[in-house]
Amino acid sequence: MAGAIVARSFSMSAIADTFKDPRVNDLLQGHRIAKKVGIIPVEVAARRVLQDLRKNMLVAIVVDRPMTKETGIEVSFFGHKTYVPAGPAALALKAGATIIPGFVWYNRNNTFSVRAFDPIFPQPCKTQEERAREVARLTQCIYNCLEEIIREWPTQWFMFRPFWPAAEQE
After folding, report:
1. Candidate from 19-23, 27-31, 131-135, 141-145 with smallest mean pLDDT
2. Domain of 164, in residue numbers
3. Rounded to the nearest 5°, which phi and psi values hold at 110?
């Protein structure tokens, strides 16, 4: 829904999963394409995101995907440590792109509300160590915004996978 709203005014693309069932994939991707949202398959996301950002396009990335300690970056989320993708922050840093966390939620009166947070500006980095710290900072900023929205609209967050590591939940 967020992409459909934004794409009315701006050129944009979105990273999207490719579904195994071609009928499901065609249905879901068809809805996005009909709303003028360009599709970036996850399998080629990094290169395409950088290309689109360099064309000054907006790129939508759904960030709330749990990862493992080995594959993700650590953030504090609702007071607990968890691991999430570093890709959105790393791509923004590499492209010098501003991050604007934005959310859409469904209202009881069959309307939608939209909220965009203040822009998050990646800071230039000279070393790998600085880059790693900046990716961590950017990712935490994104998740701080997500946490604020979920606290305000908890019934609008649908997570179908365990989001916190099992050891942290005990």
Report:
1. 27-31
2. 65-170
3. 60, 35
